[in-house]
């Protein structure tokens, strides 16, 4: 994997870079010796002895800029030797000897099984794109801006710290690699990435380096409460914005209302703000069959059904405010190119996590804004910027409009806290947020002091267990043997007759 500073995003070669290089090199490859099948570079030629047959062999060259250059060199050698054989002749045994010595050396015959950092990075990239999204099951694609952004966050940002991509890993350069991550950076994650890189080395190298890496102790960072927000803070700010809107020109008012609607949805449903853009039932009913198709690989785990789900804005037929998310949403850049931006956890059914009717009535979420928030990425933007651009634009609005928080995820945290205040079980909250209970508990507990106090005090207002409730009623002089009282207890506690 080449690292020319003037070609790639952050110095890391993308699929598009490799394809562009291949298209430049392809005309130089002589005829009758080669064949490309997607990202596989093969030799294909007629064996040069009497009665020779057409044969196809893997070249051993990787789909990378350096691999393509190596492939061209081998093809030129092969074409030259085939021309000599056509003129002078050669037998099968001599041909095999020449081919193994000059084109594809026999493994184990004095070859070096070490890999450079560059080769390891290319293998990791190839394995990543051959895999699938762990939540949606969709195959990753090098054409997807979301996949490119995820790979950059997960790997490229760490690879770029490597001091020399063409060195073979040794303890000295691994130590230098590790020291390029100072204490105020993501050291825990960096150490894991370096260990993964070394796992691709021969056993002798791993035995030398991994024990030394394992002796490095780095504490896993704890989730930080950057900028939390509680309902009172948000509601006060929302009221201020609504008053400002009344005084704005129509065009400006429409835009601000659309973004405020996204903020409110993120709280009530506990969503990542960008997920609001992927709702698929906002304006029209949608059948289970359509939902299953839009969920693609994730949808295949569900059986068929003929239910029709109401539109979100249909208050009459959707009193429970069902919101259905797709796997992502599509944006169009300034040149008219369309990009699909995926949801981290894919499509799902969502219901409000706030059960307070007064709050829901005030927010009036089913009255949809006149327009969706506008996000048109620049066609020259990097894939990571396109994929994360909506969230960045949202943060810019929060800063510009003096919101108590500048982090869109604060609304998602607040949504979970409001769900707890509503008495919803953790499992229901986690499912609504698209996570496991453990992930929800580990990552989504950001709150203010006031909200922590409110959560603690709400414990006394949760429903009592049946036996305790009966005791409390009897101490208040209520006849729990009364038929009407027993009927109410059966309804509340779902008891058998």
Decide which structural class fits the backbone: mainly alpha
Per DSSP E runs of 2 or more residues, the count of β-strands stands at 9
Shape: elongated
Rg: 31 Å
Provide the β-strand percentage band.
Answer: 5-15%
Portion of residues in helices? Answer: 40-55%
Order of helices and strands: HEEEHHHHHHHHHEHEEEEEHHHHHHHH
**Strand numbers in spatial order across the main sheet:** 1-2-3
Mean pLDDT: 85
Describe the main β-sheet briefly: 3 strands, antiparallel
| Unreliable sequence segments | 1-11, 106-111
Number of helices: 19
Distance between the termini: 71 Å
Structural write-up:
This protein has 497 residues and is mainly α. The chain is built from 19 helices and 9 strands. The chain has helices spanning 15-25, 65-88, 92-102, 117-130, 145-159, 171-179, 187-198, 203-214, 231-246, 250-269, 288-294, 357-363, 383-400, 409-421, 426-433, 437-443, 449-458, 466-475, 483-493, and strands at 34-37, 40-46, 54-58, 286-287, 308-309, 323-325, 328-332, 338-342, 348-350. The strands form 4 sheets. A 3-stranded antiparallel beta sheet has the order 1-2-3, covered by helices on one side. A hairpin with a 2-residue loop joins strand 1 and strand 2 (40-46).
List its traits:
mainly alpha; elongated; 7% strand; two-stranded antiparallel ribbon; 3-stranded antiparallel sheet; 9 strands; 19 helices; disordered N terminus; 497 residues
